[in-house]
Amino acid sequence: MVPIDLEHADRMGKAIDTARALAKQFRAKLTFVGVTSEVPGPSAHNPAEFEKKMAAFAQESATELPEGASSKTYVVHDPTAQIDGILLDAVKEIGADLVVMASHIPNVMNAIWPSHGGKVASHADVSVFVVR
What we know:
Layout: E1 2-3, H1 13-26, E2 30-36, H2 47-61, E3 69-75, H3 79-94, E4 98-102, H4 116-123, E5 127-131
Parallel strand pairs: 1-2, 2-3, 4-5
Helix pairs in contact: 3-4
């Protein structure tokens, strides 16, 4: 499973490349997970458009992968507040055995708000590979 922020997908190259390399080597299917709200945002005007963009992203990323890739979209009231719980639920729902996710550059705010990768890694029942 690879959580994707479509707004910042261009900065998630290392994590995506790592996930693709692992999927290719171990003949695994990638599932890209995106979280959005009903409110129009920079990534899409509505959840249906977001879901189409996620599917296109997965299809584009599936080239040369033996098992391909798919996408799963979750629509929630407040993605920022709910993302950690949604990602943990997605691991179970999808049946993922590994999560590969991009990290952010740590800063002083981590003392107040922990990173999503750290939270998922701390609470997931599967291995989590956080790529910086």
